[in-house]
Structures are given as structure tokens and as C-alpha cells.
Amino acid sequence: MFRFLLLCCLLPMVALSQKQPPPIYWQNASFEGEPQDATVPIGWLACEPFTTPDILPGFWGIYQEASEGATYVGLITRDNGTWESITQRLSRTINRGDCYTFTLDLAHGVTYSGYNQTLKLRIWGSTDKCTKNQLLFESPMIDHPEWQAYRVEFTARQPIRYVLIEAFYQEGIFRRKGNILLDNLSPIRWCPRA
Question: Domain tally for the chain?
């Protein structure tokens, strides 16, 4: 009788664990690389023409330590209306209707060579490289110089194959000399819907 009860309790848990898809791992989730200005970390692609992020610390007056690993990425917006963004193709497609979650660490560089105003970070999902089909996350204005973790949770309204991350200020207004620092993306994990 005890074995029967144990089996009845374990079967639903086994069935639930089998339905949960495995995590989606980022390529270079902590933006490791040789610190350089105007350089995209390995595993990532730049999206905005003629503008690329920086691998930090060590350039533009930014020397704070990474939240994970040795380096991180800095994204800026300029007063000429340009901004920086990066993208990555996921190892597998997130299907329409699926709920997923991940975390990332954000900070503000206080002395980013004149690009010192605060910004937001936006994350988009899409089926094509460098397109913005679904807004997955928009942070508050990041004004803290210390690293803080932020949680992203979204339900795909369409298949998502690419994730785009961009520096952002206000809808239609990028004319601001600001920066945002990004590090330590956790794996993208399936979240059960209530």
C-alpha cells in the first residue's frame, strides 16, 4: 500500500518535470572579452548602424568591477539621436504562448566620458535579427552605480528567435547623452502559467 501511495505522489511530479522545457542558455551571458571601446562581445551582434557598445571596464572613465566575471557591456545614447543595441539568436525558438523568465544585472556609469545621464534598458523579442516585434521588458531609469538584479518575465505573443537589448530614454526621444551597464544574464527558464 505504501508503494502505491508513493507512486501516486511521484507520478504527477515526474509528469510535470517532463513537460518543462530545458533552460535556454545565452552565448557569453556575462559579456566576457578583452575590454575595448566600440566592440561587440563574442556571441552578440550590433544592431544600430555605425555604433557599437563597449566592453568594460577600462574605457571612457568606467572602472567599476563586473557583477559576474571580469567584464560587462556599456550601451549609450547620444545627443545626435543615435543609440546602441545588441542582439543574439537563441539556441531554440520560444513558442507563442510560452512564458519564460530570466534575470540581468544593471547599473549606471557615473563618469562615462560625458555620457553620464541616466537611461532605461529595453529588451525585445523577434523572429529576425535586429527587429523589434514584441517588447519583453522595459526597466525603470537606472540611476544606481552599484549592480542590481532585475527580473524579466514575458509570454511570447509570437515565436521568438532573437532577443535585442537596447539603451533607451523616452519614446521617440533618444537625444540624451546617457549610459547603462549590463552584466550577468541568467538562463531563460520556462515559467508555468497560473
Answer: 1
